[in-house]
Amino acid sequence: MATRQDGHDRTEAHAKLGRTAVRIFAANERVNQMLIENLDPAVWKARTPGKVRSVAAVFTHMHNVRCKWVRLTAPHLKVPRQLDRARCTARQAHAGLAESATRCEEMLKEALGGSSRVQKFRRDGWGRPWPVGIEMLCYMLAHEAHHRGQVCMLAHQLGFPLANEVTSAMWSWEKLWRENGPLGALGKNC
User: Fold this and answer.
1) Separation CA 37–CA 9 (nearest Å)
2) Which domains does the chain have, with CATH numbers?
3) What is the pTM of this model?
4) How many of the other CB atoms lie within 10 Å of CB of 17?
5) Low-confidence ranges of the chain (pLDDT < 70)
6) Exposed/middle/buried for residue 160 (C-beta within 10 Å: 0-12, 13-18, 19+)
């Protein structure tokens, strides 16, 4: 038999999970912004080897996919305007990603925080929706990490590798977490 205390404990656990997911996604976004800030401007629209997206197209794709996640999963949230991969500047990508990160954080807080407004994660119109859970956050992070890896490789292939200090900072998650609040349910500061 469930008690009132059990219900409160579950509600608090959901709230902590939602807050933690927001902080983790905020740290993820800080890495995206760090990457944009430290890319040589010549890389932004440089012609890439083979038939791969330009750096500008990769970042616009990341933003536009986030917009799709919000539109399909949490349509009650304001969906940011999509970016045009052919004309997007680094400044526009910087601002667009910041805005779409905020919407994704709101969506994650609702989905993982126990709100009944977001019950399914729809990553695409063709894919089956998933029940909300930590898998949603993992999918979102994996998608972004994949594309950051592409950008780092493209910068290197185009002759503009990132400085070691930048790539090291991208892996300094402890610092990123400090900048975005305590770890919540995943750390000692629960």
Assistant:
1) 42
2) 11-181 (1.20.120.450)
3) 0.88
4) 22
5) 1-10, 180-190
6) middle
